[in-house]
Amino acid sequence: MVLGSDISSLDDAFSTLAFFEDQASVYRRLRSEAPVFWSDRFQVWLVSRYDDCSAILRDTARFSSHLRLTAWLAQLPPETHPEVAGIGRYYARGVVMADPPNHSPMRAALNGAFTPRVVERLRARIQRFVDDRIDACSERGQLNLVADLAYPLTVTIICELVGVPVEDEARYLAWTHQVFDAIGTGRPELAAIRDAQAGMIEMETYFRGLFEERRREPQDDLLSVLVNLPADQVGMSEDDLRANFGTFISAGHESTTSLIVNGLVELLQHHDQVQAIMEEPALVRSAVEEMLRWVTPFQRDMRLPTVDVPLRGVVVKRGDLVWCLLASANRDPDQFPDPERFDVRRQPNRHLAFAMGPHFCLGAPLARQEAAIMVETVTRRLKGVRLANGPIERPPDYRIRTPRFAWIKFDQVGPRR
Description:
Distance between the termini: 46 Å
Helix content: 40-55%
Structural class: alpha+beta
Oligomer: single chain
Radius of gyration: 21 Å
Strand order of the largest sheet: 1-2-8-5-3
Low-confidence stretches: 1-5
Shape: globular
């Protein structure tokens, strides 16, 4: 991408389809020339350096998560605000939109499902699932990383863990796409917000019925535990619970699918890195961290300043939306030596792919476990594994960029352990 020398050209560059083909050059200019940049086009501050993003994510007193979606929706024409208010209220009830102290009891109630101990107990189940999916494709000599491996794994495991019927996966996928298609745009688009709100209403109705089922017939899952506890022990209302479970189902599989698919695509483009993992399987864990840094499944995180904040020579005004560009922060040379090099041995690797501070991703242990098992199994069992010919087409999305198709080929399938 060729960029003009005028700093204002950054706004144009950030909002063209070409940006999605070559994000690195735009991010380099932002970090170098305007690390805190006001975008007239999107009506937000773009923050692109690691130290600034890290500080903002940890500073919940001055950079709020609560009502950030409502503030973003307020960019729509005033006459549409009553129409879209519902989706803003719905997501404001979830843990991802809460600030301390309200955030703390919500997170404590939900955290039990994602502790390292719980996730470690899932290891055998995840391994068996991945092996079964690979065996099902063994005669074809190729598979689609999205539909054959990553998506089925992530949606099945999160549904089993939380307690949502996996047979309803088509509905979850539709709701997820409606939500992410809406919030992945730079500025809110009314048609997409309407679709997302329609999906939100369907999801609310679905979870209301599921909650009643779990009260009548509890099962061994997080949903049954929480809906049968007194409200003062749960730390949130039933409306809050429904909003959180909707978020879990959406974010719990979409972001990990993006990590696995985009991370494996990048890994398979670096044959020396694949060889290193095959020769030294202990590198799988650090390979996943490098995939997280490189892919950054959630590309940006949004905050709403509660006061005027001086930042790198400008004043970020109270009420002005801020985008922490996590994908840019994860390529900041001040934090990562040789940041444009994909290196499965990179140490240390304190990336921001899971954010930082009170909103550090609840599902991080599960995402790491699923990705590690997938990388280890693909590199071990698929002999001669390689990317199929053809470009990987990713959606022009500012938040999460999961392709619909990513085909790989292999010569043969090795045995299970």
